[in-house]
Specification:
The structure holds 2 protein chains of 2 kinds. By secondary structure, chain A is an all-alpha fold. Chain A has a single domain, classed as Orthogonal Bundle (ABC transporter involved in vitamin B12 uptake, BtuC), CATH 1.10.3470.10. Helices cover about 75% and strands about 0% of the residues of chain A. Chain B has one domain: P-loop containing nucleotide triphosphate hydrolases (Rossmann fold), CATH 3.40.50.300. In chain B, about 30% of the residues lie in helices and about 30% in strands. In chain B, the strands form 3 sheets. In chain B, strands 6-7-8-3-9-10 form a 6-stranded mixed beta sheet, sandwiched between helices. In chain B, strand 4 and strand 5 form a beta hairpin. The longest helix of chain B has 18 residues. Chain B is globular. Classes of the chains: A mainly alpha, B alpha/beta. The interface between A and B is large, with 38 and 45 residues.
Chain lengths: ~350, ~260
């Protein structure tokens, strides 16, 4: 019975993961197109009249960006885990139920309408994206229920169709809109990490952590639901309730990530599967460690995106796919060879 | 006498006008072993799904321990009834021990971890079903028969007074078939376990079942002591097959007689 997870094992692995994450964040904060001298930066903001450039770059440019990437990476990886378990489909990712196209349409409408007002000092694009994402998930959930109780295939198909429908509307708007609108929307859709306001990042981090906390409380139920609805019920898990709470929490967490940074593909697919291949599918371990791994992965990918063609920047989604794809394949092949099949 | 499972006028169909079960009424005594037999599509699996609340009742009533099955929450029903289904899926990423431990989910502490008692129950179930040798292997790497034993272990680890099994021995070799039925029988004798098992093997049904429920779809059903239900005439009526009956070393057996079989 060595394969059973004990609290000791979990704490140890989580601590190791957090240490790696901290090291990655520290290293990535020091890397960039401008050299930052740590000892200079630690002297604090410059005296009256002068500015300390090292401090300014580290605290006001690098650290917010690293923190944002960590929050978004954790959110996407975690909701990827949940969607894969609930839909019992290894290809599920956080965007599968229409969050991507819903958020994209919301953002595009905000840009086209030319909203130039601000709410609490923020552009409305993120808010519209959030509303679009949650509205679409709600629509897909409602359509899925029409297909019948507990029909995960119905939900999946509803998500695919709604995604395709909204993407068509986005394409339509793209083809009739002015080019600068198209450019700014596309830039947003590809994922960008430009939020510089630490307060916003703190609020988002709190929200995402709360979501991960709720999902962790459902971990036993997610384990049982991985075996199917009937099995879950016969070991005492009410499938409908667990599923509803998990869907809502995962969707909200994803929508927060999307409204902050646009669409970043691959994190929600590659990170959960990689963690699963190494440590197994027990969600009590899979959820927190995927969050940590997702955070570290996206911080690293974003750092590559901003230094590789510096001073220009690549969309981070390009890097997540280029780095994540081969990494995942290596793990997949190793696991298939090692354990005589997928674990 | 009131049974631990009481079925009263149960009717169910997947399509309108095509009932699978119609007007089924029987009672399962506490600590008894009921074998459910019948041809394909006669509703054996459907009946078990209705008894454990997986399917919603359409007509009639099912009472478990005096209470309507629909009045239980999933959690309280899981304390009364454990189920071994016909399809025993291979879910990736779970070991055998983790799968069996899932039976204890409702007992986990606030942080979602098992207690020493939970580990004890799992350990015992693994030993009883002869699966402890591959406790740490991935579920997906097992053969069909090994996996079936794991799911039986999971049901045993749930430590419920009632056990429902849908063809629990269909993939097992001879030794494990007999071993598993002996295990169920020992649970019945030592702990007062109530067993309801669907099976295709009429002889095993007759030797292990105290009572037999023979389902025949539109032809109705028979319920009663094994020797009164498992007759040549009932098998002809429900299965449409001629059987030879006789005594082999003092045990009554039924042998199907086909057109060309010797």
């Amino acid at each position: 019975m060595r394969s059973l997870l004990t609290p000791g094992k979990l704490v140890l692995r989580l601590a190791a993961g957090l240490a790696v994450l901290a090291a990655v964040c520290a290293a990535c904060a020091m890397v960039g197109s401008e050299h930052v001298c740590l000892s200079e930066a630690l002297k604090g903001p410059g005296q009256a009249g002068g500015v300390n450039p090292d401090y300014e770059i580290l605290v006001h440019i690098r650290l917010p960006r690293v923190a944002l990437a960590a929050v978004v990476g954790a959110a996407l990886a975690c909701s990827g885990v949940v969607f894969q378990a609930l839909l019992r489909n290894p290809l599920a990712d956080p965007y599968i139920l229409g969050i991507s196209s819903g958020a994209g349409l919301g953002a595009m409408l905000a840009v086209i309408a030319g909203f130039n007002w601000t709410f609490l000092g923020r552009s409305p694009v993120g808010g519209f994206a959030f509303a679009g994402a949650m509205g679409t998930v709600w629509l897909v959930w409602w359509l899925g229920r029409l297909a019948g109780r507990g029909q995960m295939t119905g939900l999946l198909l509803a998500g695919v169709v709604v995604n395709a429908f909204l993407s068509a509307i986005i394409l339509f708007l793209t083809s009739v809109a002015r080019s600068e609108i198209v450019y700014s929307t596309i830039f947003w859709l590809m994922g960008n990490m430009t939020e510089g306001d630490f307060r916003v990042i703190w609020v988002a981090a709190g929200f995402v952590l709360a979501g991960i906390g709720v999902l962790y409380l459902l971990a036993g139920g997610l384990n049982a639901l991985s075996f199917g609805e009937d099995d879950a019920r016969s070991v005492g898990i009410e499938p409908a309730r667990t599923r509803l709470v998990a869907f809502m929490a995962a969707s909200a967490v994803t929508a927060v990530a999307v409204s902050l940074s646009g669409l970043i593909g691959f994190v929600g697919l590659v990170v959960p599967h990689s963690v699963r291949l190494v440590l197994g599918s027990d969600h009590r371990q899979l959820l927190p460690l995927s969050a940590v791994a997702g955070a570290a992965f996206l911080v690293g990918a974003d750092t590559i995106a901003r230094v590789v063609v510096a001073p220009a920047q690549l969309p981070v989604g390009v890097i997540t796919a280029i780095v994540g794809g081969p990494l995942f394949l290596v793990l997949l092949v190793r696991s298939c060879r090692g354990a005589g099949g997928l674990r | 006498m009131r049974g631990i499972i009481e079925v009263d006028g149960l009717s169910f169909g997947y399509r309108k006008g095509e009932p699978v079960l119609a007007g089924l009424t029987f009672s399962v005594g506490k600590g008894s072993f009921t074998a459910v037999v019948g041809p394909n599509g006669a509703g054996k699996s459907t009946l078990l799904s209705l008894l454990c609340g997986s399917l919603r009742l359409q007509g009639g009533a099912v009472r478990i321990d005096g209470r309507a099955v629909g009045d239980y929450t999933a959690q309280t029903l899981a304390g009364k009834v454990a189920v071994v289904r016909q399809e025993t899926g291979a879910v990736h990423g779970f070991s055998v021990a983790q799968t069996v431990m899932m039976a204890r989910t409702v007992h986990f502490g606030a942080l979602g971890f098992e207690s020493a008692a939970d580990r004890q129950a799992v350990h015992k179930a693994l030993a009883e079903t002869d699966t402890q040798a591959f406790a740490d292997r991935p579920l997906a790497s097992l053969s069909g028969g090994e996996r079936q034993r794991v799911y039986i272990a999971r049901a045993m680890a749930q430590e419920t007074p009632i056990l429902l099994l849908d063809e629990p021995t269909s993939s097992l070799d001879l030794r494990h078939q007999v071993g598993m039925l002996d295990l169920l029988k020992a649970g019945q004798r030592d702990r007062g376990l109530t067993v309801v098992a669907a099976t295709h093997d009429l002889n095993l049904a007759g030797r292990y079942g105290d009572e037999v429920l023979m389902l025949g779809g539109p032809a109705g059903y028979e319920h009663g002591a094994a020797e009164t239900v498992l007759t040549q005439e009932n098998v002809r009526r429900f299965f449409g097959v001629e059987v030879a009956a006789g005594l082999v070393e003092g045990r009554r057996v039924l042998v199907a007689v086909g057109r060309f079989g010797r």
